Amino acid sequence: MPTNPASPRVLIVGCGDIGNRLAQKMFEQKWQVWGMRRDTSLLAPGIHAISGDFRDPESFKAVPDSMDYLLFTGAATMRSEEGYRQAYIKGVQAMITAAEAMSIPPKRLFFTSSTAVYHQHQGEVVNEHSSTKPGKFNGQCMLQAESLLLTSHFNATNVRFSGIYGPGRDRLIRRALSGQGCDLEPSPVTNRIHSEDCAGVLQHLLMLDQQKKAVEDLYIASDHAPCSLDEILNWLASKLDIPLEPLSKQSSKISNKRCSNQRLLDSGYQFIHKDYRSGYGAMLSAAAGNADLKIKT
């Protein structure tokens, strides 16, 4: 793809599903997009490919010396404390080091974090001002990576995504298809965001900053409708016309909170999928031709 020196330039570090979706949106705005990942054959067409391991500062030597924005969307390949430390803490530090070496400082750095940083478990509403005392390694590592970004010398923004779903992230649909309902009592409140909105949020914040409008250092990105896991599974089962098997209930001790997206809404973002009915409904409609799925219209 020909480059235009005047168009904004963004590097998506760990450019996977969300990064590819974001790239398509930025192309529509005439931006130039670079993507770093090990297997560059999985990058969307039009992305300038950088083959490398984002945990390794050496990989960033292939990045152009001038970049307007650096955005970390990488994911851990191992669900362990060491895997998270390597991916998020080491990865974000490598990105910051690369930014420091650039001849022209980037306008802003971004990190896609997680609502796992919150410890609340009694159905409380949490926002960007709520305390964060995660008891598990995933939230702890995310919080450390956030801190690295905010203590760097750059303008920086952390975006805390709640449970991401969408094409290729259909675990609850498959669970409903198997007839397995919620086995937790009480049914925990779940917070969700469609992958297309993940990309939409990042595009929105990039565009705000490029237009020199106010961008905060932290946003919660979650849809409008926190609700019980039981509610979602029952809704999916009704659409799939599948009865859910009664399960013996286990005591629920997992995180149980309601994520507020008010700051994001105040910034002007308009959700593509405001709740799970919209998001999962689109997924079910797209799969309607699948003979294995019997979907009520």
General description of the model:
With 297 residues, this protein is α/β, with parallel strands linked by helices. The chain has one domain: Rossmann fold. Helices cover 33% and strands 19% of the residues. The chain has eight helices and 15 strands. The strands form five sheets. It has a seven-stranded parallel β-sheet, sandwiched between helices. Helix 2 (81-100) runs parallel beside helix 3 (137-150).
Q: Largest sheet, if any?
A: 7 strands, parallel
- Level of helix content? 25-40%
How many separate domains make up the residues? 1
Q: Which value, in Å, is the CA radius of gyration?
A: 20 Å
Give the averaged pLDDT, no decimals.
93
* Order of the strands making up the biggest sheet: 3-2-1-4-5-7-12
Task: Kindly estimate the percentage of residues that lie in beta strands according to DSSP.
Answer: 15-25%
Number of separate strands: 15
Low-confidence stretches: none
- Tell me which CATH architecture applies here: 3-Layer(aba) Sandwich
**The first-level CATH class name:** Alpha Beta
CATH fold annotation: Rossmann fold
Which shape, going by the Cα principal axes? globular
Q: What is the CATH superfamily classification?
A: NAD(P)-binding Rossmann-like Domain
Element pattern in H and E: EHEEEHEEHEEHEEEHEEHEEHH
Please count the helical segments: 8
Determine the N-to-C terminus distance.
Answer: 42 Å
Structural class: alpha/beta
Summarize the structure.
The protein is an alpha/beta fold and 297 residues long.
